[in-house]
Amino acid sequence: MNFVTFDVMGSPVPKGRPRFSRKSGRAYTPAKTAEAEQSFLALALPHKPDTPLEGPLKVSLGFVMPIPAGKSNSCSN
């Protein structure tokens, strides 16, 4: 069984909704989303296997997030 594993450092960026240009009427991806996608692609491509993956695939994601500034460190409700 082959594994592809790599870490992406930084805060996750939510996928932005497509925007529409009033001038041309075409849809485009917001800049923040496009930059995040290009950054992820640059990190992922070196780990691409030489042959296509076949059969069932398992994807595991783990996120370590900072506590938001407006939240307390305590567990009290």
Structure description:
The protein is mainly alpha-helical and 77 residues long. The protein contains one helix and two strands. A two-stranded antiparallel sheet has the order 1-2. A hairpin with a 6-residue loop joins β1 and β2. The N and C termini lie far apart (45 Å).
Write the layout of secondary structure elements.
Elements: E1 19-20, E2 27-28, H1 31-44
Antiparallel strand pairs: 1-2
List keywords for this structure.
single chain, 77 residues, mainly alpha, two-stranded antiparallel ribbon, 5% strand, flat
Outline of this structure?
The chain is 18% helix and 5% strand.
Gap between N and C termini = 45 Å
Largest sheet: 2 strands, antiparallel
| Class from secondary-structure proportions | mainly alpha
In N-to-C order, the SSE pattern is EEH
Are there runs of 5+ residues with pLDDT below 50, and where? none
Helix content: 10-25%
What percent of residues are in strands?
5-15%
Total strand segments: 2
Radius of gyration: 18 Å
Average predicted confidence as pLDDT: 84
